[in-house]
Amino acid sequence: MTQMLSDSRGIEELNNTELFPIREVSRLTGVNPVTLRAWERRYGLISPTRTESGHRLYSQADIDNIRSITDWIERGVSVSKVGKILAGIGGLGAQERALHSVIDAAEQSSWQAQVRQAVNEFDENRLDQLYGQIFSTYPLPVVFQELLMPVWREFAARHDGFGQISEWLFLDSFLRARTLQRVQLTRGSASQRVLLASMPGGCRELELWVAGILMSTSDVAVSVLAPGQPLEELSLVCSKMRPQALVLFSNSLPSADTPKKLVRLGLSLNCPLLLAGEIADMALDSLSGTAIGCLGSEGQLMQRRLQLFLAGRLDT
After folding, report:
1. Among 3, 69, 82, 252, which is most buried by a count of CB atoms within 10 Å?
2. Are 144 and 214 in contact (CB under 8 A)?
């Protein structure tokens, strides 16, 4: 949640810990206040402290982050993509830097080679052993994004040779069973509940389960609706389950009428509507100004933006 300071304490903090008001940050960075607010509220790129009256106070780390954002934009990267880049190189904090640095190319290649061999041999015991070893060694985002899902996509794309479809089905079935268990474990006693559904034809079942795992936290439980869930019936589902938000996931290119369909769906819901997956990046500009939020397609970024949105700190 946003850290709140009383106005008097805010002045004291400003003097003692070098927190800067937005006008000073604008002068130091050359970024106007309107843009700074948009980077915070729409994209979740910065997180200033707030006084009780709502005034923003920025730390030196915030200023450094703003300068990094500006550098990437000046190189031609759109602001909607900057968060993903910074998460990859550590611009959004120590946790992201740690996750990025825990595995190098040699380790990644070795683990993936072992997984491929187990799949080639249809050796479920060995695959289960590797799965446990990987999870005991690396953080969850690294397990899926850097190790398992890239191998899964390789097998999904190789359907020409004899036995390749069987290999992919073997791996897909194994991972779907394990991810379903993990999604159920993450529900726990979370105080907030989010529903996750796929756009029609937008992804395979495993991709949806993995997205649910990556978005979940100890405070936010993600309930995954089965693939094939009719969009027109989501208003009924949400009225019964009463989630804090509904997230639609897709890795497919949106059609020309997708924004209109989503706006209509959003109007029928009793909760906010969010997008995740590659569609969130591709449809971001077309949904600008609507009530639909975009979480992005990278695991840590989706989780971070979802948390910010539920805390009321990420604009749609």
Report:
1. 69
2. yes
- Beta carbons of 194 and 221 less than 8 angstroms apart: yes
Specify the pairing of strand 245-249 against strand 273-276: parallel
Rounded Cα distance between 224 and 247, Å, is 10
Decide if 84 contacts 296 (C-beta within 8 A).
Answer: yes
pLDDT tens string 34-58: 889 888 887 788 888 887 777 889 9
Q: What's the pTM?
A: 0.69
Domains of the chain: 4-91 (1.10.1660.10), 105-181 (1.10.1240), 188-310 (3.40.50.280)
Tokens 């999870």 belong to residue: 135
Summarised one tens digit per residue, pLDDT across range 130-165 is 999 998 888 888 899 889 999 999 999 988 889 999
Per residue, what are the HEC states of 170-209?
Answer: HHHHHHHHHHHHHHHHHHCCCCEEEEEEECCCCCCHHHHH
Averaged over 64-83, what is the pLDDT? 78
pLDDT-derived band at 249 (thresholds 50, 70, 90) equals very high
Q: In 3D, which of 231, 224, 154 has the Cα closest to residue 182?
A: 224
Tell me the three state secondary structure of residue 67.
Answer: helix
DSSP conformational letter for 255: P
